[in-house]
Amino acid sequence: MGVCRFKSIAHPLFFIIRSNFMKTRSEFSSVIYESDEMIYITNMKQAAKYIKHHATLYDVIECGGKVVFVFSRKETKTLYEAWNAHTLD
């Protein structure tokens, strides 16, 4: 994602700093998540496939004029592998 400063679509994100980890509160879902444990997807088709396969959408943010979908890296590992192998239906 480069050097984007993420903002939620509706409101700025709220950050909670605790022991060197950044927790982010989503204005989209009201969930607090660890930013470094997430993946940030800008490909609409890929995000739609993840949602179709019941991956939890933690946040929707804007970065550089693009919509960014936030998912758990751990939860979407197998979906990512299937996406790269072009087998994710």
Task: Give structural notes.
This protein has 89 residues and is of the alpha+beta class. The chain has one domain (8-84). It has 2 helices and 7 strands; from the N terminus they run βββββαββα. It has helices at residues 44-52, 77-84, and strands at 7-8, 14-18, 21-25, 32-34, 38-41, 57-63, 66-72. The chain has a 4-stranded antiparallel sheet with strand order 1-6-7-5, with helices on one face. Strand 2 (14-18) and strand 3 form a beta hairpin. The radius of gyration is 13 Å and the shape is globular. The two termini are 26 Å apart. Residues 5-20 have low confidence and may be disordered.
Structural class: alpha+beta
Proportion of residues in β-strands: 35-45%
Number of strands: 7
Provide the low-confidence segments as ranges: 5-20
Summarize the structure.
Helices cover 19% and strands 37% of the residues. The chain is of the alpha+beta class and 89 residues long. The strands form 2 sheets. The chain has a 4-stranded antiparallel β-sheet with strand order 1-6-7-5, with helices on one face. A 3-stranded antiparallel β-sheet has the order 2-3-4, with no helix packed on it.
Which helices and strands occur, and which strands form pairs?
Layout: E1 7-8, E2 14-18, E3 21-25, E4 32-34, E5 38-41, H1 44-52, E6 57-63, E7 66-72, H2 77-84
Antiparallel strand pairs: 1-6, 2-3, 3-4, 5-7, 6-7
